[in-house]
Amino acid sequence: MSTAQENVNTDLQAEVDKLREQLEAIGRVLRALAGSAGLQSVLDEVAEACTRLCNADAGALWLLQGDELHYLAYYGDAPNRPYDRSCVRSAGLRDLNPRYNSTS
Fold first, then answer.
1. To which H or E segment does residue 14 belong?
2. pTM to 2 decimals?
């Protein structure tokens, strides 16, 4: 097999692996929806799936309602830190008031 064919095969296999990972994440979220005792378990699964798909160390879900951000779910190894206005890239979001669920 030529080097060009090997490169194409490697690229295709990487794409197949990526798609398989995405489908598995979607499947986990759908299973959480189907067997859910509540919304929080689904949000937790979504946070985990998104974190893994982005190859991130941690991830969080926030809900924007009016001028407030509501913390919904978190996944990862990093400690659960309060919302930090300095890390928000959008100038419009810096002025929002974060609210935390009592269950989180």
1. helix 3-34
2. 0.57
| Beta bridge partners of residue 98, listed in sequence order | 69
Which residues, 6 or more positions from 83, have their beta carbon under 8 angstroms from its beta carbon?
Answer: 62, 69, 71, 98
**What pLDDT does 97 receive?**
59
**Residue pair 28/45 in contact by the 8 Å Cβ criterion:** yes
- Pick out the chain residues at pLDDT < 50: 86, 88-91, 102-104
Inter-helix orientation angle 39-53/3-34, to 10°: 170
What is the rounded distance in angstroms from the CA atom of residue 17 to the CA atom of residue 72? 30
CA distance 77 to 6: 37
The one-character DSSP state at 38 is S
